[in-house]
Amino acid sequence: MAPSAVGERANQPVTQNPLISIVDDHPLTRATIEDFVRSLGFSARTFASAESFLQSSLISETGCLILDVQMPKMSGVDLQNHLSQNGFDIPIVFVTAHPDEAIKARALNGGAIGFLRKPLDFQELADCLHVALRRGRGVASP
């Protein structure tokens, strides 16, 4: 997504206080993103793995998912595929310390809102969150 397109859409208000779920296997990254998301006025919950997010009762309440690409067992892109195959259309912003163009293309083709490199540009993350939350979520079409 072009930065200018994100910036233009980011200026439109989000009218509710949705839950942002953060899935990252690195504790400091989770805490930093959680603090930032809360500073924007959103609710946030963190998960150390894709599996712990899937086992939670918060999938249907999640308005946007901030998702690490590389995690043990189930990767972020695998979680994206799993959610889609099970009828969940949650807007996703991927974050990664190891950018890979093939994985980026796979994530974006799967409907991701953004694919951001760590260390994060927090303005870029905020813009992606606003775009994601305006897009909303729902049940994926078969």
Can you summarize this structure?
The protein has 142 residues and is α/β, with parallel strands linked by helices. It contains 6 helices and 7 strands, in the order αβαβαβαββαβαβ. Strand 5, helix 5 (101-109) and strand 6 (114-117) form a beta-alpha-beta unit.
Key terms:
single chain, 142 residues, alpha/beta, five-stranded parallel beta sheet, disordered N terminus, disordered C terminus
Termini Cα gap = 25 Å
Proportion of residues in helical segments: 40-55%
Q: Name the helix and strand elements from N-terminus to C-terminus, one letter apiece.
A: HEHEHEHEEHEHE
What is the total tally of β strands? 7
Question: Mind telling me the C-alpha Rg?
Answer: 14 Å
Continuous helix count? 6
Strand order across the largest sheet = 2-1-3-5-6
Q: Which outline best applies?
A: globular
Major sheet summary line: 5 strands, parallel
- Measured by DSSP, the beta-strand proportion falls in 15-25%
Oligomeric status of the shown chains? Answer: single chain
Weakly predicted, low-confidence segments = 1-15, 138-142
Helix/strand-derived class?
A: alpha/beta
Would you tell me the overall average pLDDT? Answer: 88
